[in-house]
UniProtKB/TrEMBL annotation:
It holds the Pfam family DUF6049. Residues 558-571 have a biased composition (Low complexity). This is Uncharacterized protein. The chain crosses the membrane at residues 736-753. It comes from the Bacteria. The lineage of its organism: Bacteria, Bacillati, Actinomycetota, Actinomycetes, Bifidobacteriales.
Amino acid sequence: MAGLLLAVAFVAGAVALPSIAMADGASADGQTQTAANETAGKNGNAQTVSLTEATAVVTDTSGYHLKATVTNTSDTAWSAGALTLSVNPMFTFNSRTDMQEWAQSESPIPTTSQLGEAAVPALQPGGNATVTIDAGADADALTRMLNWGPKPLLVSYTHDDTTVETHTFLTRSSAGLNNANTPPMQITMVMPLSSGHWTTDGESLESLVTQGTTGTNGDGSSSQSSNGSNGSNTTNNSNNSSTTTSSGTSGTGAAAAAVSTDAAVLDGDHTRFDHTLEQTLTKHPKLQTIADPTYLDALAMPPQTKAIMQPAGFDITAYAAQDNAQRYADAGVTDASWNADAALAHYRSALGDQKAEASAIAWQGKAQWTLKALTEARRQGYTTVVSTHDFESTDTDTVHTGTAIVPTDAGDVTVLVEQRELSNLAKGTATSRKATAETTEAGRLARFVAQSAFYQMEQPYNERNLLVCFDEDADAATVDAFMSAVESATWLESTDLDTLAKASPYTTGDEAKAAVPDDAGLSNTDAAAVANALSALASSRGDITRFRDAILDKSAVSAGSSADGSDSSNGTAQRGARQSSGSRWVGELLAAHDSLALHALAAGGGSDRLAASGTTVLAGAQQLSADVLGGVAITPSEAVTMLSETASMPVTISNDTPYPVTIQVSSITGSPEIVTSRRTTVTVPARSEAQVTFSLRAATSGSATAHITLQDRNGGTFGGAQDTAITCVLKINDKTGFVIIGFAVALGVLGLWRQFNRKKDPDE
């Protein structure tokens, strides 16, 4: 039977060759254009025929439904025309090349059976019309399909003696056919649950700087912070959540600090999940999710998930490519903030269950899983990783199970390797720029179903489990459409992550190690973005530590003194409490910054949305440090007018932070005639002001500008400067003036006396 089908296809193809050869030119009865030629059009890149809906899997009862949008891409009006569907019900694709050439309108396959036709109205330039074609289950073209699998489907639009063709696929399932069923091919559909909507909570950041999330007053006493929480508790206001987390209850060290800080400084519109994806996950229980635990922690009702990834989707591959752990530490991101323990701490915080368990699977970032990256992931507790754009061999004859077990110095790592073609289609990428039907989701779904059916037909008795990954920002409608198609495909069997991980691996040992990419493959653009982010974060974190070490008054964090700098006389216990509150506030500033830094260095996987989110959070970290240094500022003052050689210039310094600061104030005029004293030290109490006075001295009348700056105790300038205008008008109103006047009067009197008492010459 198969041989007969091949012979029929060959003969039909040979007969069709002359007409196909004319596809890009003129035919006997008019002009024919392929969709690829018409795609560019005169009005840009508009597609003439775009598929908007199509039956993904055809059964014995489904019939076939197609909806398409026809657009006039020219600058002239088109007369009324027709859209026609035709199929070859007996054809069987022999190779991947055959399928690709058909999708690219390059294959001479005849489609002699008409499936349906619809009228298309006249179209003005730029105008469009949506048409629908419905073929019942008893349509002749469908009943003639005696074997299951992908069939070539031609969509033809004819107007004004011109034909535009789009090539796609119709895939018949085995339902209702008398064919012997082969074992289904296993497939694991995975979706990363992460957010590209992270923003910073400006009010919380400001409150953290001026009040501290602990709600501690400048004198060490406790007060309620602006977000309504007491002590070390912080309330998660993201997505209207009322979840409360407490510092020190989840995980240890950096993980606990991160868990208790995320809710205070991160915000974002995560209603995308609540309103759409939740229903999708419920509808498709076989859909596997790997969730960013910090994302789950931001949701009011976090969903169940099959596994968790590294916190914030931290880019481990870029981390390994940078090969500089100290740079990340300087930026505020240590291994302890993204390792498997930290992931579990966030997950437990999200669920409010300190005994909850979940498998930790590292998600790939912008770079490739090199041996160094795999080793680092394994060292940080990730025994399994997902590979989304490497490890897929290009020289295999057939598809294979997407697992490899790679030995590293830290232990074996199970790599779950996505199947490239199917995953790209699920992520919204066509198999080729020439495959014009795949410019829409309906066209990509038709190709996905056809391609998976062909893979099963290649080696129907080989056990294989293919991994297909959705994009990070896939919407619910896309996920629902692909999952529904998979569930309807009789040749596919959905499995879970555990089944995939335990499947017989495609490669192991030295063979698997040899397949590991040697180069990280991080683009220059991405490498520069990571390097710039690290530099910016190191600078902003350095500003906060500088505030702690050289601006904050030592009494705020030293034992034996209260937070306002006065001596404590209430006992050792109270001194210890006050000491810890000052230290805790600085710790909260750093924890908030580091939480933002972790999200700023998220993997993104190439998603523009996630990249934009990282940029937004990076700006929040920079704003936090700017607010910290800006909490100590010079209060604007009026211009100074000197009426004598000496005067004074008062300068007021404000401190909006909850602890006292000790700094230096510098003043310089840059004028030799009018000068000020250069520097003075001042301690400004918490949430208060203090005034310093600079001495002014003038040698002559004139004007100058005093440039006043703040300096830390090491002499480094910070904060905003102020310029104060100085005008000197010397008046004769002091002892020196009277001496000068007296001397002038004496000279005048002497002159008059000589004038009246001098002897005149005889001839005068």
